[in-house]
Design a protein that fits this description.
With about 400 residues, this protein is of the alpha/beta class. It is about 40% helix and about 10% strand. A hairpin with a 5-residue loop joins β3 and β4. α4 runs antiparallel to α6.
Length: about 400
C-alpha cells in the first residue's frame, strides 16, 4: 500500500470515529454503560427489577413516575352460604400488590443499635379522660389505682424505648384524653390510608378509587363516639364488612411492617387472688364464630359478608412474644388461671387489619399485680417487655 493510500485510509477512520463520538454525546447512540443490554432491568413503575441493586441514575431519581391509570379494585361477589348464616368475602385481596416490605431483612438484627429502623408501632393506651377504665379502692373507698393512668404511663415508656430502637411510634393518645375506640380505629386507618395514597403514583396508579375512604374516616374521628346510633362507627359495622370496609382492611393488609399493641389492665372483684398477664388476639375463625352468634337466625342476604383476610399466624406470634417478653421481665405476672393467650373479638383488633394484640398487663384487684402496675420502675420494665416483643417478632428466627 502506498503512503498516499495509507494516509487516506487513516483519515477516513479518524472521521468515522469522530462521527460515532458525536452521535454518542448527543444521545443518538447509547453510552457505554447501557451498551449490549436489553433495557428490561427496570419495571414499568421505574423501580429496579428483582435482582438489581436498586441504585438509579440521576435522571431516573428525578423523573416522576408515569401514572398509567386508577388503582384497580376488584368488585367480586361474596362466597355463597346457606339461607341462614353469614356470607364471607373471598380470602384474597381486592387490590393489586402496591407494597410488599421484605421483613426477612430484619431477621438476626436484634443486637444492632437500631434493629427496628423502618418498623412502625402503634401504641394504644386504653381508656382516658372521663373513662378511667377499671379501678380498685380500699375498704374506706379511697381509690388505689385507675387503669387509664397505668396504660398511659407504660405506653409513654414503651414509646421512648421503641424510638431508641429505631421504630416509628404512633400513639393513639399521649395525654389524659378521652377517645372512642372507633376514633382510635379511624385515626390509625387514616394514618395508613394517607401513606398508601402517597405511594400509589410510584406504582403507576392514581388514588381516586380509595380516596373516598378518607372523609368517612375523618367523620369517625370528628364524631368521637362508640354509640351505635351516633355515626361514630362509620363504615365499621361490628358484624361483617361492607365493600368499603373490606377495601380499607385490604389496604392495611399491605402493611406488615406496622403492628398495633393495645395496653389495658384487668379486674376481678370476686377474688383478689386472681392475678397475672393475659394477651388477646383475633383470628378469622374466632371472629366468624362470634359473628355467627349474632346473625345465625337471620337471612344471610341481609348481613354484610365476613372479612376473611386476617393474618392469623402473625397475630398469634405477636401475642405470644408479648406474653413471653413481659413475663421475662416479671415472672410473677404469670396468670393464675388456665389460659393467658386468648382469642378476643375486640373492636380494636377486629376493625383493623394490622398485626395486633391487646395486653391485659395485670389485675388491679390483685395486691401483688397492683404493686407492679403502680411502680414507675416496674412500668418501665413492662414497657421494655413490650419493646423486646416487637424486636423478637421481627428479628427472631
Amino acid at each position: 500500500m502506498t503512503n498516499r493510500t495509507t494516509k487516506l485510509t487513516l483519515s477516513i477512520l479518524v472521521l468515522i470515529c469522530l462521527a460515532i463520538l458525536a452521535l454518542s454525546l448527543t444521545g443518538v447512540l447509547p453510552s457505554g454503560d447501557g451498551a449490549g443490554t436489553s433495557g428490561s432491568s427496570q419495571t414499568s413503575a421505574g423501580e429496579p427489577a428483582a435482582g438489581t441493586t436498586g441504585s438509579a441514575s440521576a435522571s431516573q431519581a428525578t423523573t416522576a413516575p408515569l401514572v398509567t391509570g386508577p388503582l384497580p379494585v376488584e368488585t367480586g361477589e361474596p362466597e355463597p352460604t346457606p339461607a341462614l348464616g353469614l356470607r364471607r368475602w373471598p380470602a384474597h385481596s381486592c387490590l393489586p400488590v402496591v407494597r410488599q416490605p421484605d421483613l426477612s431483612a430484619y431477621i438476626g438484627k436484634a443486637d444492632e443499635t437500631k434493629p427496628l429502623q423502618g418498623i412502625t408501632v402503634i401504641l394504644d393506651a386504653g381508656h382516658g379522660g372521663h373513662d378511667g377504665g377499671t379501678s380498685c379502692a380500699d375498704s374506706s373507698g379511697r381509690t388505689l389505682i385507675v387503669e387509664k393512668d397505668v396504660t398511659l404511663a407504660v405506653s409513654l415508656q414503651a414509646q421512648k424505648i421503641l424510638t431508641d430502637y429505631g421504630a416509628t411510634v404512633y400513639m393513639t393518645r399521649s395525654g389524659d384524653d378521652w377517645l372512642s375506640v372507633y376514633n382510635r380505629i379511624a385515626q390509625t386507618g387514616k394514618w395508613i390510608l394517607d401513606r398508601f395514597i402517597a405511594e400509589l403514583p410510584g406504582r403507576g396508579y392514581s388514588g381516586e378509587a380509595v380516596a373516598g375512604l378518607l372523609p368517612q374516616l375523618e367523620a369517625m374521628i370528628a364524631i368521637n363516639s362508640d354509640a351505635a346510633d351516633s355515626g361514630g362507627r362509620g363504615l365499621m359495622l361490628g358484624v361483617g364488612a361492607s365493600a368499603d370496609a373490606r377495601l380499607l382492611l385490604d389496604i392495611q393488609n399491605q402493611y406488615p411492617d406496622v403492628v398495633l399493641i393495645s395496653l389495658h389492665c384487668n379486674a376481678y372483684a370476686g377474688d383478689s387472688a386472681v392475678s397475672g398477664l393475659q394477651v388477646y388476639y383475633l383470628t378469622n375463625e374466632s371472629k366468624y364464630s362470634k359473628e355467627i352468634e349474632y346473625v345465625q337466625y337471620s337471612n344471610s342476604a341481609d348481613n354484610p359478608p365476613a372479612y376473611t383476610l386476617y393474618d392469623d399466624t402473625s397475630r398469634q406470634e405477636l401475642a405470644m412474644q408479648l406474653r413471653d417478653s413481659i413475663l421475662n421481665q416479671f415472672p410473677e405476672l404469670k396468670f393464675t388461671g388456665e389460659n393467658d393467650l386468648l382469642a378476643g373479638d375486640y373492636a380494636i383488633l377486629r376493625e383493623m387489619n394490622l398485626v395486633s394484640a391487646l395486653v391485659e398487663m395485670g389485675f388491679v384487684t390483685s395486691p401483688d399485680d397492683r404493686r407492679i402496675l403502680l411502680d414507675p420502675d416496674c412500668q418501665r420494665r413492662i414497657a421494655q417487655g413490650v419493646a423486646d416483643a416487637v424486636i423478637n417478632y421481627y428479628c427472631g428466627q
